[in-house]
Design a protein that fits this description.
By secondary structure, the chain is an alpha+beta fold. It is about 10% helix and about 15% strand.
Amino acid sequence: MDNICERTTCTATQSSVRFGLSADKVIDGNIKQNYRNCSHTEMRKSVAWVMVDFQKAIKLKNVVIYYRNEGHWKPYRFRQYRLEVSNSSGTQQWIQCYKDNTDYPAVPSSIQNISCEQITRFLRVISTYDAPEDDGSPDYLVGYALLEICEIQAYGCNVGFYGPNCTSCEGCENCDIVLMSTIYRLKSIVTCSPNCENLQCNGNGHCTRGCNQGYWGDKCQNNCSSSCSTTVCNRPNGICNSCSDGYFGELCENICSLKCLRLKCNKDTGYCSTGCAPGYYGNYCNSTCGNCNTTTCDRLNGSCKDCSSSYYGVKCDQNCSKNCLNLECRQIDGYCSNGCKNGFFGFFCNMQCSGKCIQNNCSQNGTCVNGCKTHWSGKRCDRCDFSHYGSECSKECSVNCIKQTCHNITGFCTYGCYNGFYSENCEKKCSASCLSNCNRHSGECDGKCPVGKFGNYCDKMCNQNCKYGCNKNNGLCDFGCIDGKFGPDCLQTCSIGCISGCRQIDGSCTCEAGWQGHQCDECSQTHYGQRCDQLCSPICLNGTCFSNNGSCKEGCNINLYNAKRIQDMNQISKSCSSKDIYSALYGVLTILFLSIFLNIFLIVRNFKKSLLKKQTPIIGICKSYQNSAGYANTTLDDKEEGNIYYQELGEFSQPSFGDSIEGKAGYEELNKNNQPSDYDELH
């Protein structure tokens, strides 16, 4: 079974041609579905059709139709098409094989495969459908149909043949194209119905060429509906090909809306196809137009070209604002185009003029025409003048505001405060200690403080020891201290040992005689006393002594000590009797002997123990001598920090002679072996 449209004898025509896209394109074998490969009927036509002529009757099996379908272009114009066949192009005897029932907004498939088992010479695709998508364009007016068919393929065999390979019917007058079942009776005579076209029928009486106009059925025994246009209907089922004006439906049994223009409506849907009577709109023209200036409105959405006075909107169904001057407004959006009544303003004149306008008169944008009442300003008199604030503009801006100008609601000084004042309303005074002005918000002094004061508000006094004032932020003496003071805040006093003042940073200075140290705050090695103004004893070894009491640090110089004692004894002998001299001499010799003995004992002991590394000073004796000679008013039990020699002597397993000089108790400790002591003999 082949595509009969591919035969060279096959031709095609169409109802009209647009852009040169003729019917030849539907049988050229090209199934591409873009615009340039498709036929195209002309616009502004109420009927569109494309017809194929096979040049002779053939047994048709099925038809494949390719309709235009590009990415953005859907086959919406293909809705409700009909596929019809006939053996005569010049008559109205078209048999409907198929009717599409797709409704807006759905679209049919762009490729249709339709079963149509008929013996026919002519095949056509026909449409009277008016696509709503085209109604908004000036090129596509209401009530017109279009077809854009790219290819038609008709599959079947020549008459007398059947099956996929078009096999001969083998002597049958006719046979089914698929099953080869005979459709006549041998040697039987059948009288055809007078309603059969050309009185031709088969052995069963079925009309083989179709029915005469006005009849339908296998034997053309049924009358078509009287509402069918020209009383033509589909042979198999009696469905009208088209309806008379005022009717719709398959059998044209339904009456179109009385509001349809000229009572015409779509056969299948009943939609008014030629428009609506004045004052109505909608598919069935059953909706009433709004307050249009004319009696007509858009057929589909009811929009008006122009509105009656005092109405606006697409359908003129909204009232203009009652405050519009003369109740007139713009149709598209309701804008009061002639202005507003007195006392109102705005797009819809629905806002009242400010009560602060003189005579309550303002323009449509709200500007007060005659100016503002006292203390009010602005185009709409909706804010206070520069020197007043508050909800009623009854409060006066502070006189401390620069230019006496403030915010119209809060009273905040717009340009700041005059010198000496701060806060939002400039009501607070700056500190009296501020040299210049103060911060607008916090009141802290700007710039430097007066000499002698510091702090954010310059209300704190610098330390009186500061020289030339102090640091504003922390009160430290950045410019130095007065004489005799040092430290970052000048609270520390220079040492009395300084010759003339000291450095502020660390208290260092040049020392007076008898003083030493970084800050001259300790006695030198050769001086002692509260003011370090007393020299150590010349008998002290190396001339050094402790600073608090003058006792020798390193012990006594023995030679100087003995010479001094002898000198003292000679002085005593001049003023004493011989007995006294002998007694004194005896005592001196005894002490000398004991001193030598003690020194020897200690040297041996230290050597054995290896505890002392320096020469052991005979401190006790040196101090005893000082007491008797008047060099220092001290005793042997004085303990000076750093005098390690007393401590070292105390580490021996037995007490030394020096430990016992202070009193008799010490000698008793030495005489535990019942030996007489020198102390007993002297006393």
